[in-house]
Design brief:
The structure is a homodimer.
Chain A lengths: L1 E5 L7 H10 L4 E7 L18 E5 L5 E5 L3 H12 L6 E7 L7 H4 L1 H11 L4 E7 L10 H18 L5 E8 L8 E4 L5 E11 L5 E12 L6 H6 L2 E8 L8 H5 L8
Helix pairs in contact in A: 1-5, 2-4
């Protein structure tokens, strides 16, 4: 079992080290991650410029590779053969913020796992639900304990083709976590605001600012699970077809094209 | 009806001009698009740096805004109020390459429409299916004719919440297009290859190269529709939950967390 560990915060992020250590009992672990932070980068494939890869060492001495590409590029590089052995499983994280609801389309952590799923590999994304009440300490050890229990389950059971697991973990000591919940994606409420400023030469520039997104803690959703201090495990698919909308659309009176 | 026109190829791309002209009969048109090419950029939200917006003019004299943000940033800027009036509808494109199957998660053209859908706006992405056989001429006029027929249908019928339309158009004269097909997303076959080179100082760098992706032209899919010279209209949703995988996962024996 050859496990690729990547993330979107950069190879030296503490969450990546915790994840690499957590999955080490289950196979050979290779780390290939971005050399810088790519948060909110989306699903990127870098075709317009060459990518560099350099050897680095994690804080515990583990050898690792750092690339100037995006998280999904790191997975593509690994799958396409930059590592001597083929990859069997992809884990991404541990992200220091939750990736729930619509976040998954923006999230570099999740899109790294998506890239793994596109290549047919069982893939998991791990994120810690830091929020306004609990952000003093980051409990990577809790997320690592979750990964150490879930990864062997995935190795044993496999995952359906083109489905990845998006895992969010309460940012609490392990003893405060109440258990597992298999969930659907919930509804994020974004609270972005446009902030206009002027540079020293009087020209405007803009920040996308505002409060952190919140969410509807509906039962059965990832957001609801986290609100109840459960680990949320959401199967995420690559097929984005809105099947329930097909019939409605087929009833439209499409005009002649000629 | 206030229509936002954006794309991922940059504000001066000919596809954007064709799209802006096509939708002009249906309302007030505002153009806010990236100042450079963002192809394969994924769904980006730029939070770590401020964004600039400058006034430019399209080739036909239309005033437009160009931002140094990603396509989805352009939509967010417009929705968050950089334009004096609220947006009612988002159109993105015309991309000079198809966005089918799993492409939609990478595609800047589609993620601009996703951003519109996240904000609750009816949103459409338009792409032209250039392929190895038909790439001598780009038939933007065909895609524009499709947009001019489809946009009023969307204004009339509306779209389900959080569903966007991903529209792919054969790269043919309009007379060669056989009609409309409402489709699901097909299966892309990526043919990426890793290409290793050495720089003048003997250090390696890597290209993600290889042939263009191909696809399975299955009946009922976007890829199948294009293969038969039909316009493909695919409803795409933001909810990526793999619902069919929920029951299987709930049957797993999750170990105790303590």
């Amino acid at each position: 079992m050859h496990i690729l560990v990547t993330n979107d915060d950069g190879v030296f992020a503490p969450g990546l080290l915790a994840l690499a250590q957590a999955v080490r009992p289950f196979g050979k672990v290779s780390v290939l991650a971005p050399d810088r932070n790519w948060s909110a980068s989306g699903h990127v494939k870098t075709l317009h410029r060459p990518l560099r890869v350099k050897e680095v060492q994690l804080a515990d001495g583990t050898p690792a590779l750092a690339s100037d590409g995006a998280p999904s590029d790191c997975v593509a590089l690994a799958v396409l053969g930059i590592l001597p052995e083929p990859i069997d499983l992809v884990v991404s994280g541990i992200n220091p913020n939750a990736n729930v609801g619509h976040d998954v389309t923006y999230s570099g952590t999740v899109t790294a796992a998506m890239e793994g799923a596109i290549w047919g590999l069982p893939s998991l994304a791990f994120s810690l639900d830091r929020n306004e009440e609990n952000n003093h300490t980051l409990h990577y050890e809790t997320a690592a304990a979750v990964a150490a229990r879930l990864v062997p389950l995935v190795i044993e059971n496999g995952l359906p083709a083109h489905v990845l697991l998006n895992v969010n973990i309460p940012n609490q000591p392990l003893s405060a976590v109440r258990g597992w919940m298999v969930t659907r994606l919930g509804l994020r409420i974004y609270r972005d605001e446009l902030i206009r400023r002027e540079d020293p030469r009087g020209k405007p520039y803009y920040w996308i600012g505002g409060d952190e997104p919140t969410g509807l803690p509906e039962e059965g959703t990832d957001i609801g699970a986290l609100a109840g201090n459960y680990v949320s495990v959401t199967p995420v698919q690559l097929d984005l077809t809105a099947y329930q909308a097909l019939d409605g659309l087929r009833g439209w009176k499409f005009p002649d094209l000629r």
